[in-house]
């Protein structure tokens, strides 16, 4: 009987640890829905390496996450919705760029702030976008020598 009790206790501890890990992983990856913040939209030509939960950064600091990505069948562009922390005002002439953390790092979405005195309102769309640059395409152009020569 005590052998059975020990197994039940150990099983309960393992289950509690698994639930704790799942909650932590959900919060760390941004999958949990936070109510503090506002949503903005952008449309990219290429969103390679970016998905739901990807960081949105300003000056290298995480200020939000990508909340939804969908293909627009009329424009063939990736319509992206992302949240920005409450209290961070983004000037309405800012640009949004898909950036890379390095040669082997992942991609993230970076906001390049403008100088306008007016800010985006919740639900606005950022017009000035730059999609992902494919490293493979750049390397192929370099190797094949298809660049312009002066």
Automatic annotation (TrEMBL):
<protein>
    <submittedName>
        <fullName>Outer membrane lipid asymmetry maintenance protein MlaD</fullName>
    </submittedName>
</protein>
<dbReference type="InterPro" id="IPR003399">
    <property type="entry name" value="Mce/MlaD"/>
</dbReference>
<dbReference type="Pfam" id="PF02470">
    <property type="entry name" value="MlaD"/>
</dbReference>
<dbReference type="InterPro" id="IPR030970">
    <property type="entry name" value="ABC_MlaD"/>
</dbReference>
<dbReference type="InterPro" id="IPR052336">
    <property type="entry name" value="MlaD_Phospholipid_Transporter"/>
</dbReference>
<feature type="domain" description="Mce/MlaD">
    <location>
        <begin position="36"/>
        <end position="114"/>
    </location>
</feature>
């Amino acid at each position: 009987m005590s052998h059975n009790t020990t197994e039940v206790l150990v099983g309960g501890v393992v289950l509690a640890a698994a639930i704790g890990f799942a909650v932590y992983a959900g919060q760390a990856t941004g999958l949990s829905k936070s109510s503090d913040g506002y949503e903005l939209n952008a449309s990219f030509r290429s969103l390679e390496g970016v998905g739901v939960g990807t960081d949105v950064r300003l000056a290298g600091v995480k200020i939000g996450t990508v909340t939804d990505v969908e293909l627009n069948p009329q424009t063939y562009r990736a319509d992206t919705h992302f949240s920005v922390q409450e209290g961070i005002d983004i000037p309405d002439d800012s640009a949004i760029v898909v950036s890379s953390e390095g040669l082997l790092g992942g991609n993230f979405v970076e906001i390049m702030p403008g100088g306008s005195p007016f800010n985006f309102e919740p639900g606005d769309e950022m017009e000035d976008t730059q999609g992902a640059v494919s490293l493979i395409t750049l390397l192929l152009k370099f190797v094949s020598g298809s660049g312009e020569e002066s």
